[in-house]
Structure formats: structure tokens, C-alpha cells
């Protein structure tokens, strides 16, 4: 019998939170995504991939101004892949990052997908990243990138999530006070125990992760 899929929901449930101290300076990659008219494309998928095997290093959405910034990236050789519903997918050439590099990429222009339609076939396929009103959703199921990995590894690659393995803590958007929910139930364990639990949890059993920056009223209690 197959293990039921898990849903990880992370929400900031407390006010007056303090930023976690920044990590030691590492590499940074930034840039801008626009359409063919030069208008910024907000909430496009921006994925940082390893050039060796195209495995996911980090994923995020572009801002309302079409910008993206990947921070605290290790040294190595990478690719960037951009996609958005209704637009053609673009992958950049490989580039290398040395220690403490600050690389600004050329503007990426996504053209509209104008493929001629001869036959219509409707299939249900969720995008890897979804931006909703109050949360971001990482659709893990059926993503070969995470095959064989742990739930903690998935979190480390999710947009806005920082995992400190030394202190065994998780922060969201640079703030502490993160609450972890599995299948809608809050984990009451200490955070270090939650981190250990996620590190031993197989990513193949996760359906999706919800990153809730502004929890709805039903979470206030």
C-alpha cells in the first residue's frame, strides 16, 4: 500500500518577528525578465539549475517589477530557466560563479507561445511554482528533481526558505517563528526535532509545499 502523500504548510503565525542574521556573503545572481514589448513579467518561474545535470538548486518567482535575485549560492557552474503560462520557456547558457561573485544577467525576454494548434488535448499538469493570493505553492509530486531526496532538501530549495543545519532552524523570508504543518496539523515538536524529522522524510511522499507569508484568520489561534 502506497504511503499517503504529505502536504507541508509553512506559515508565520507571530507578529514582532526579528530577522535572522545574514549568512556569510556568498554568490548572488540577479536579472530582469520582460515580454517582447519590454514590459516586466511578474511571477514568472525562475529556476537556478546545476549545469552538470540540470538539477534544481533554487527556485523563485520574479517580483512585480520582473526582477529576480538568487542569494547565498555556492560556487559552481549553473543555468537559469524561465517559464510562464502562455510564454515560451527560455534556458540561458551555462555560467560560472566564483567566491562572493555578484553576477547581473542580461535581460531575458519571453516571447508569447504562438505554436499553431491543430488538435486540442486537455491534460492536468500543475506548474512547478504557483503564486496565490496569500501563499506560494511548490508542487513536488511528479518532479524528478526531488526523486530520492528528503523533505528538508526540498525546503532548502524552496523560494524564501532558509534552513540552518548548524542551529537546526527554519526561517521564511528572513524571519524566525516559522510553524510547520503536515497534512493540516501543526507539529508541536521543538524546531530541531522537526528539522531532524524532515531530513529523514522521503520527498517522494510529498504532494506539495505551501509557503504562507501572511496566514489567514483561521491560523491566528
How would the blueprint of this fold be written?
Layout: E1 6-12, E2 27-35, E3 45-50, E4 56-61, E5 67-73, E6 76-83, E7 90-91, E8 95-97, E9 102-104, E10 108-110, E11 129-131, E12 136-139, H1 151-156, E13 161-164, E14 169-172, E15 178-182, E16 185-186, H2 191-199, E17 206-212
Parallel strand pairs: 1-17, 2-9, 2-10
Antiparallel strand pairs: 1-15, 2-5, 3-4, 3-6, 6-7, 6-8, 11-12, 12-17, 13-14, 15-16
What does this structure look like?
The protein starts with 5 loop residues before the first strand and ends in a 9-residue tail after the last strand. A six-stranded mixed β-sheet has the order 11-12-17-1-15-16, with no helix packed on it. Strands 3, 4, 6, 7 and 8 form a five-stranded antiparallel β-sheet that branches. Strands 2, 5, 9 and 10 form a four-stranded mixed β-sheet that branches. The protein is built from two helices and 17 strands. By secondary structure, the protein is mostly beta strands. It has two domains: 113 residues, no CATH class; 84 residues, Immunoglobulin-like, CATH 2.60.40. 24% of the residues are buried.
